[in-house]
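Exercise 3.2. Students should predict the tertiary structure of the chain below and write it as structure tokens, then compare their answer with the key that follows.

Predict this chain's 3D structure.
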Amino acid sequence: MKKLIVIIIILAIIFVGMIVYKNVTIKANQISIQEIEKIENYISQIYMWKEVTGEAIPVFEDINQANERWIWEVVKKNIEEDKPTYEQIQEKAKELFGQNFTKEFPKEGTEYLTYDEQNNRYKLVEVELDQLGDLFLLNKIEKTKDGYEIEIIEYLEDYSPMLKEEAENFVIIRNLEEEEIGRISGSYEEEETELVKRNIDKFTTKKINLRKASDGNIYVESVE
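Answer key:
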């Protein structure tokens, strides 16, 4: 029985990987499913909520010039400790952005990472989110000399129909201007992907340049 469960899980992972692979335009050299999954996982780590940081991912030429609120909210989102030290915050920032990242966390803290002087630690303040999920789709991937150039499509999932007293089993897909582009059943990921790609001209696209470091990890270098 255990072997059967393991086989089912493995097949499910392969199937999801095939769907992701099928829906991404691969340019230049061949890119593996594992690479695509690694890229998607990394971008998910640094992709935020626009009501908190202004943009889910801002435009910048160098990571050290990126919007500071976005930078430290990315760190907060990924940090495991409830009350991290200054050193733990800086270490997490390096882990997410690489050794080329030189910005220092403000010792006085931020709006959502407040300083607890008594314990010399920082407290993670919960953020109130709206009913719009900030999401992206990988659209194109091209290998470069130092890493990858990624094109993503940004969009919003509006869950409000499913949160009503008489809940509807659909979500509304919106662009970043919050214009309704279409509706899908609440459980069909592939249907959502097709809807977004079919209406790509109505959504925002961005290019993310990822640098592959000597340790094998990938880090965001710029966004345009």
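Discussion points: The radius of gyration is 19 Å. The helical segments are 2-22, 33-46, 50-53, 68-78, 86-97, 189-198.
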